[in-house]
Every structure is written in C-alpha cells, then in structure tokens.
Fold:
Amino acid sequence: MDRFDIDQIVQPPTAAWEARRDLARVWLEMPAEQVAIRFSGLGAAHWAMVQSSLRQFPPSDADGPIRNVILNRLSEEAPSPGVLLAGMLFFFPHEWPQFWELDEIPGWLIGHYLAYMLQTPAVLHGHGQAEKLVRFMEDWFGYLLRQIETNPCSKAWQDVARYAVCTQFLKSYFTMANLRKLMTTRARILEYALAAEGSVLDFQFSPAGRSGRLRVGVLAIHFGPSPETRATLPAYLYLDRGRFELILLSILETKHPVEKFCAAQANRFMVLPPELAQRVSAIRALDLDILLIGTNVTAANNDITDLAVHRLARVQVAGISSCVTTGMRNVDWHLSGTYVEPIQEVQSHYTERLLLIDGTGHCYDFAGEAAGAQGPPPSREELGIPKDAIVFVSGANGYKVIPELQDVWTQILAAVPHSRLLLHPVNPYWGFQQAVQAFLQRMKQALARHGVEAQRLLAFEPTPTRQQTIQRSRLADIYLDSFPYSGASTLLDGLLLGLPPVVMNGCHFRSLMGAGFMRELQMQELIADNAQSYIQLAVKLATDATYRASIGQRISTAMSAGPRFLDARDYARQIGDALVRAWEARENG
Structure:
C-alpha cells in the first residue's frame, strides 16, 4: 500500500535553511548603493532559492529572529532593495506588511519583483492567511489593472498583463469572501492582454433565423476521465436531440474510452486547431446558439480561459466546473442549483446571470468509465489500524486543507482516542505532488500541538484509478468534508460507500456543495454551522455506534433510491429547460 511516511518527511536539508539565512543577512547588511552590483553576481542563486520549496515548509524556530527583522524593515516607508530581496526569501507577497508599486522599484529589480509578486503559496501557514491572500490579490491586481488601463499603448504594460493572468487564482477559493471583484479584475486584464496580441474578442452573429433545434456546443480541455468530464457529461448525455443539436469541442484528443463514449453522445466531436485565433474562428464558424463551458476557467489560466473571454456563441454559459464567477463580460449565464445559492444575496457574487436548476446543480454519471483493476481491498492490519479504531477519511486535495481545517480535524482525532485519519491529498487532476511534503510537515506539527501521535495520520499517494481510491476508503467509518471549499466528487465517493459525512454550511456555491448534497438527501442534521459544531458532530458519530449505524443506513437507502445528483435523465431535462430559458431571455432582449 503506497502511502507517505509521516515520520520520514523529506524536508530540504539543514544546509539549505542556513544558506537562506546567510543570504538574507547579506542583503540586510549591505549598503543600498551596493545591492545592484552584488545582485549581478548573486541573482541566479537568490532566485533559485526563492523558487525552491523552502517557503512552502512551516518556518523553523531558527528562522524566527531574522523573519521578525525582515518584517520590521519591510514596514518602513522606503526600504532598501536589499530588504525587498531578503523578504522574497522568507515570505510570499501576501505576508508582507505592504507592497510597492513598480515605479518605486529600481529598474534592475523590476523583473524579479514582478515575478515574485505574482506567486501564491501551495501551502498556507497560520489562521487567516487565506483571507489575507485574497485581500492582497484584490489590491495588487487592482493596482495592475489601473496601470494597464492608464497606459493602453505601453508594450511594457501589455507584457505585464499577459504575465499577470498566468497567476494561480485557486487559493482565493479557500475563503468565504465574495470573489466578484477579484475575478472581474482578472478578466479585464486578460482581455487587455489578448487584445494587445491581436485577438478580436467581440463578434456580431447574424440573427438566429433557424427553426427547430438549438445548436449547442460543449467546450472543454478534453473529454477524457476527470471530475470535470464526469460533472459535464450528464448535461448532455440525455439532452433531447429533438430540441438540440450537440457539438463537443475539445482542445486535446485523448483517444480514451471515456472520450469515445462522450463523442458518441454528440452529433459531432471536433478537436480544435492549435492556435488561439484558429480556434476562435473555428468555433464562430459553427454558428452556435449556445456554448456551455465545461472546464474550470477561474482557478488558473488555461486554453479554455483564453477562449471564454471571446464571443463564441450567441449565448455563453459557465458550467459548474467554474465554481466562482468568471468575471467575463462575454459569459452571459452561470449554471448552478437552488440548494447551493443563497437566493437573497446570490447575484452579488456573479457578473453573469444565474441559470438555476432545482437541487445541487451537480449531477454525476460514470457511464463510459471502465471499472479498472482494483485489486484486493487493503486491510486494517497491514496499515496498522486496530480493528476497533474509528477511521475518518477525506479525499480533499491538500490545497483545500487550510490551517483552520487542519486544526479542526486534529481536534477530532484528539477527542476520539485511537482514531485514525486517512487522507488522499494528491490526485492527478489537481497536482500538489510538489508540495505534499510541506503539507505533511504542517499536519505533523498540528498533531503534536494537540497531543496526537503522528502515526494516526495516514496519507496515501495517488492511485491510477478512482476505483482504487474508493477501495482504500472502504476502511473508513466517517467521511470528513473540507471547508470553506467543500468537496463534490470526493464527497460523492464517500456517500456511494454509505459513509456518514460531516459537512459545513456556507454562503455561496463553493462552500455549499457538501451541504447541498445533504439537503438533497434530506439529512440536514449532518450540516454543521461552525467549527465547534463540526467537531461535535464528528465526535458524536465516532462515539455513538448506534447513531452512526442509523445514519449510514439512511444514507445507503437514500443513495439507492437515486437522488437527483445521480439522475442523469432528470438532470438533462432540467438542463434542456434551462438552456431554452437562457435562449428565450436573449430573444426577448
């Protein structure tokens, strides 16, 4: 059984930590007028250290004094360039007490400073860091947008725009913050960058004179196996072909059986050409009435993000894969569900109009997926888990396990003696492999703070198939959902096993996905309102075997009855009606 050895976490060698402190002292002690000269010789080594994994690991006790000195110096009104360089070695930009605009930075340092300012951490350290990161990103990208719009003909700012939108925006999901402002700023910068490269973003379609079926395109990076494919497939699997003509549009051709199955459901499967302008022209030539965007275009910049800011169809709809607003003016609607959108304030989170269907907005269908080689299920004995131990499990990617969530899970383990926590922090779709050691080190420190033995945490390496991950989860008694960014496909796997879950309430789509599932199953008692009630519910499920068995039986019964998030035919009917509503809204002005 491949799992990470918590006791043998591979940290950067001690010499690397010492070298970083030594280099920071060089910059801090150097007269300002000498820094540029020395940087010409030390710049490569400095940047290699900034790019290394050191900042991802929790800071060591030995780093404390110099970190405090750097933070105090960064608080000065006009710090030396050496102080900025020292700050880059130990902190991510959102951890600085302030930032400096580019015209305040010496010319020789601007390139490195800009590259540094667009970095986000894979692993957050300390409570409140996610909120602090969002505030920083709003301020920093707001500043960049103002400069870009003030200097529309500047080649330098055109380059900044293209560079800036490649930033990782995924970490902004891990808060309760309204991300409309940030995502709108990002979209405007992307529009500027693409327009500067010659893209024609807007397009005037001829009046839709066709009678009969609406022509619908589904756009995705690929249609091979992935959570996005599984979540998008039900939207068109049983779509009424008497009402809709369906075209699947893909950037990549995988030739995987899942792709072949998806393609067989459409009137046409089209692999787009390699260049952006060619792709835009090819899609516009299809004369689509509606385009459904099946790839997440909000977490990071990708080929679909670049396409989505263009007018490609008469009506453009962001699918549920984009779990926050796109902020893009050419995306007209955002698909969601009534159980995951608080109606009284929901529109304030979106630039698009909401296209709501009843329920969670999600539906999953695993048609076309081969079961795959599972092998025998692992035993508790081979993993060193006592037969009578309560086992918690979560499939949440390590990115989602922010310090606040980590501490809640650790407190649950402390409250349930001999219990175990099984994690699957790495999956092939989110990555995280590069940061997993730093994540496990942070988890290990949290366990120690709460008096929990490190061996009670079992973190597994990724498996080739979803089915093998499910096999591991069969060892568990209780599923722990992540918050404030809830799970969907991973939580569903637990529900399919009949595992009682603990989920957290929220205030918007990305924080309400787990709660939406529970409302669909009419099991609201499994929705916690705060961290303390989350812990109490997990402990009750762990210590009351009768209650846990009753909840598990109710879940199995409800799942066997076919909830709406597994009913692809009903989902397709709702999607079809929703697409017609969006079309009629356009026709009616």
